[in-house]
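Pilot study result, target chain (209 residues):
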Amino acid sequence: MAQKDIGNKVPLHTLKKVEDVAAYYDEWALNNKYDKDMEAWNYTGPKETSETFNKYQKNKNIEIFDAGCGTGLVAVELKKMGYQNFYGADISQKLLDLAPQGLYKSLERIDLNKKLIYEDDKFDSVFCVGTFTFGHVKPDALDEFIRITKNNGLICFTINVGVYKDYGFDKKINNLIDNNKWKKLEFFKSNYLSSKDVNAWLGIYKVTK
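Predicted structure:
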């Protein structure tokens, strides 16, 4: 999640392979330590993105793809607001196993850096919170998110400030605007994980393909 050694094992930014990231989170899931840490550290990303999304999307019956869903923290927040149709995917099966029973319509173990298994225009909206960070998912995933999102659908995400320029997210986001793939609704510095001095950009964009 961050450049800090927040898992008390190895700094996440040193993980280069998808398999290493998956193993890292699988271990973090043991004894529900991941969720306990997120609560203890006041991880606000899921709540903040959900509240921002709720300002723009009033239809509670839409189908939402939760990319990098982990244990379901985003869907839990969205459900409080009345949304109910969630489809989740994550690289860590152990985190997926901890998601509340019945919260998601489906859960898949997926590498988000690869072409997704879903057909074009499958979902009304896509969330990707806490996944655009060191050693994780790269900017090209945004192309896939747009592909599987219906026209006029919303894509809501966070990007760790440490990788925003280094990984080329800044250029990718602007390229998608220039090519009329989406338009910006909001983009701002979020609280995210302030207790660990980890900041992220929060963006919400409307698909205009």
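One observation from the pilot: Residues 1-10 have pLDDT under 50 and may be disordered. A full batch analysis is planned for the follow-on phase.
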